[in-house]
Each structure stands twice: as structure tokens, then as C-alpha cells.
Amino acid sequence: MELYLNATSPYARLVRIVLLEKGLMDAVTLKWCDPWADDVDLLKANPAGRIPVLVTEEGTTLSESMLIAVYLDSVSPNKPMIPKAGLGEVLHLAGLGQNLMDAAFNTVIARKHYGNGIDDSELGQRRSRAIQRLLKQLDGELGEIQQTSTINLGHIATAVALDYLAFRLPEVNWKKDYPQLLAWHASVTARESFQQTAFC
């Protein structure tokens, strides 16, 4: 398999963590690329020019990190990332993480192209409010949970989104505002899969 990615995409990082947790990293060739440079190979794999993109052993191309995660979870039965037990709760948390990731990522991209003043636009304010609401809900749901030795797609999506927020939007100081959520996050990101894929 081949995975098109870059080092700072939260979506690509989510997929890399799933690969590591599933023990599939050795089955994948990483294809580092710049999605903003209209990389020819990337565009062939995904005409949208977005990462990550997974090319399966059969040559099928899969885009969108959550869909890739679903596929990878089906390839190897060990350590299910989307367990049948508690499926609704896992997908609920994965959705919250995805929404937080989207709001943070779109804020970063908007600033890159239009400057920080774009934060004052209607869409910018909407993204900002969404981030705050999501952080509050995640704190309420995860703040008092003791992390177990298992991990699922909901945990991964949420922890990656929180990491990305700290990496790209440090002024959203969720670590200071939500110490219990920070404790939960620290327990998840201590895993080797997170350490190996840390943003830099």
C-alpha cells in the first residue's frame, strides 16, 4: 500500500496512528508530498489534491482520513479501532474529534491565505465558537475518564485534534482552561504511536 501525506496534516497523522496501532506500518510506503504544489502523483491518486490518500494493494485509491481508518481497521483484525462494543460512543467521539480538527484546520488555512483578520469574519467567528463549544463538551465527556490500555478511533481523532490545536493555534489555550481534559490527552498521547507521529 502507499500513503500520500505530509508531516503537519492532522488528517494524515490520524491515519499514521491507526497504521501503527494496527501493526500495518510495514505494509505501507509513505509518499511525502506538498498538497499545495499540485503534486502530479497526488493528483493522480486524488484529483481533489488533498491528503491523506491511501492506495490499496489492489490499486484502489481511498481519500478522507476517517474512511481510510475504516478500511485499515478491516484489513487487520488485531486491535480493532472501531470495536462493535460501544460502537455508537466510539463514532460519537470520533465525530467530535473530526469537527474540532476541521474547525482548527480551516482556521489555519483561512489565515494562511487571507491573514489573521479573517478571524473577524462571520465564518471565522463561527469556527471560533465551534472550537470553544467542542472543547467544553469534550472536557465534560472525557475530563473524568481514566484512560485504559485500549484505544479506538474516537480517542485518536480527539487527541490528534487537541494536539493540532496546540500546535497551530496556541492562543486557544485549552491546556490551561481544561486541566482534566489535558490529563486525559496526556494519557493517550503517551502511546508510542503518538510519540512517533508528533507534529514538528
Describe the model:
The longest helix has 28 residues, at 87-114. The protein has nine helices and four strands, in the order βαβαββααααααα. It has a four-stranded mixed sheet, with helices on one face. The chain folds into two domains: 2-75, 3-Layer(aba) Sandwich (Glutaredoxin), CATH 3.40.30; 87-196, Glutathione S-transferase Yfyf (Class Pi), Chain A, domain 2 (Up-down Bundle). α1 packs antiparallel against α6 (153-168) and α4 runs antiparallel to α5. The model has no long low-confidence stretch (mean pLDDT 96). The protein has helices at residues 10-22, 40-45, 65-75, 87-114, 122-142, 153-168, 174-177, 179-189, 192-196, and strands at residues 2-5, 29-32, 53-55, 61-63. The chain is of the alpha+beta class. The chain starts with a strand and ends with a helix.
In short:
InterPro entries: Glutathione-S-Trfase_C_sf, Glutathione_S-Trfase_N, GST_Omega/HSP26, Thioredoxin-like_sf. By secondary structure, this protein is of the alpha+beta class.
Short descriptors:
Glutathione_S-Trfase_N, globular, 57% helix, Glutaredoxin, GST-like protein YibF, Glutathione S-transferase Yfyf (Class Pi), Chain A, domain 2, GST_Omega/HSP26, 4-stranded mixed beta sheet, alpha+beta, 2 domains, 200 residues, 4 strands, Glutathione-S-Trfase_C_sf
